[in-house]
Amino acid sequence: MALPWLKSESNDNAPVQGTLCVLLGEQTVSTALTYLTPTETRVGTISLQRKFNTEEEFIASLDECLRDLGDESEAYNEAVFCLSEHWADAHDVLPEKVTWIERALQELSLQALGYIGLVDAFISMLLKEPTKRTQLVFFVFPHTITLNVVVNQHVVTTASAGRSAEIEADCTELLARIRSRLSEADLTTLAVTLASPDLSDAQLDILQQNLLEYSWQTALPVQSVPQVSTVKREELYRHLFHHTAEVLRSKRLGAHWQADPVAAASESVFGQEVAESFAQSAPVGQESNLVAPGKHEPVTETESDPNPATQTTTAPSRRKKRGGIGRLFRGGAGSAKRKYILIGLILGILTLVVVFVAYLLLFSVVEIALQPKHQTITKDISVVLEPGSLQITDNYSLPIDSVSKEVTVTASKVTTGKKTIGEKATGKVKIINKTDQQKTFESGTTLTSGTGVVFELNDSVTVPAASTSATATGEVKEYGSQEAAVTASQIGDTGNIGSNQDLKVASYADSSYVAQSLESFTGGSSEDVAVVADKDIATLRADLKKQAAEEGQKALEEGKAEGSRVAPPHEVTIVNEELSAKAGEEAEDLTIKLTAKATAFAYNSQDTRALAQAVLEQAIPEGTQLAQSEPQVLTQFAEASTSAQTQLELNVSAQVVSQIDVAAVTEQLRGRPVLSVSQSAVDLPGVQSTVIRWLPAVASWFNPNIPDKTGRIRIYVSEE
């Protein structure tokens, strides 16, 4: 299907024109009536969003969306499309969707001018606001999710994946695909944007909360959790419709279009071949039906050209044509009976028409959908976690459980202690007694060499007293002596003294007792070895407790109940400890195997919904009420500044909508002109926009005002 891809150009020399815009998500459709002027593009009425699954439902939904645009849209049949990736790529409409669009164009009497990519149009909105942050733009569809990475106002990479039930898993998969294409500088600061043409604002809020709780530091080397924002459906639609029409305006509003509007517009969009075919289908000499908004006249059928060679047919309107009755006049002229029958038939038809119009004027019903004004209210709470029931407000408490897991961690480190080891020197000495009394020396008695080396007696030794004998030359005194084995008191080779070395016996005077080595002492030696120091054990134990806390948190996260959230462990208790060596023991390395119990606080995330409801009840502004969408709760764990207690920081927010008194609004709208109650001009208190629909739809042709009777006015409030 040769439906061209449109890109923006600039040309501002043409009159105001109107165009239908069709936005197709994966399974949703919406339409808008836009006005193209030489200098600007304005978006008028926007239809409701409608969902579909089959081709039949698609055509029916598109028809209903076009009818939402009101009578004014009947003047236009040219349409430009804004297509998601499920419908088209940058080259053409996808083959499986060609028959869908062709059938819709045929059955709804539309002429397609071209299309633009939905995601590209949305990215253009972001690029209008310069930012130094790297933007991760997630476009979410019912069955797929697309990630566009914008760096310095340029899309640097794109990735798509099938959508699962957990957006965290989808995010991990997409980030893994694009991680290698980004530099570290690109990831300094991040901003995350969520948008979807298919999902509701409430569904996007849930996905936003999940991404705020996502472990970004695990997936990317970022230092902080990025900002996560959403684009509301109304804002997204209005931008996409505006951008779609803006691209078409730059394509079709040119100086040559004024001479032949259909052919020139077709040529600028489709090319010469398609332009010629459009020109052939346009009435010769007919002025364009596209006029300035608010100044158009009803479209009339082209009068027949008496020359068959020049007669052409116009594109069929979406309105059903009424059949003529001319065929009833085929018959013989002069038959009075036939004339009376025909006259009666005509009068009967006219009567039916009058009755039908009277019914439309007196009994038709108008449905008015009111969308209330929205606003977001937010409140921050900070509480300290303790086991039991945490009282948040006067009427609500958050149940807190204490959970624990045992983990075993092991680590080793090089020892830093030093110790000298070796052997003591041994040898034999002779103890000399110079006194007249024998002397017993107990084991352990010290003997000190001249160099200060101390030795100790191995056993008790008794040394006989000195004796005197007479000789020819006089008396001779002979000292008493006794051999004994000694051992150095300290290790080391300093105890290896030589023979005939004098030693002092204990603290006795040398005039009483002395000793002398009988041989060279041997066996003394020493060396320095590594041993386990007390600080080695303390340091390794502290590291293991920290590791046990981290492993404990992982175990708690893996074993937590569905829907629960677990805070970081606030207590780590050692259950068992095994050391490869004790303090002071010789060892090059120390290994400790630690079994610890990590204890943390946990609560059920579902309880936070009721928490948000309770907290926000007193913050609701007067005249508003909470919207039907779930309140949003953003949580973060932190350590209290004044203690080691775990602190839970809560940011609760919700959409509130204005309370609308339907009875009062009904009374206010009675008899008002329909055009005074439109999406772009609403003076009803608390009302953001309106959608008006007549039952039957044809009643809108005959009723310029809203009925005066309240029974013919049906009003309902729609939050979407």
Overview of this structure, please?
The chain is α+β, with helices and mostly antiparallel strands and 720 residues long. The chain is built from 13 helices and 34 strands. The longest helix has 28 residues, at 336-363. The radius of gyration is 49 Å and the shape is rod-shaped. The two termini are 34 Å apart.
Structural class: alpha+beta
Q: Tally the helices: what do you get?
A: 13
Q: Separation of termini?
A: 34 Å
What percent strand? Answer: 25-35%
The coarse overall form would be rod-shaped
| Poorly predicted residue ranges | 7-14, 254-317, 319-334
Number of DSSP-assigned strands: 34
Main beta-sheet annotation? 6 strands, mixed
- The helical percent reads 10-25%
Mean pLDDT: 79
| Computed Rg | 49 Å
Features:
720 residues; alpha+beta; Nucleotidyltransferase, domain 5; 6-stranded mixed sheet; 6-stranded antiparallel β-barrel; 34 strands
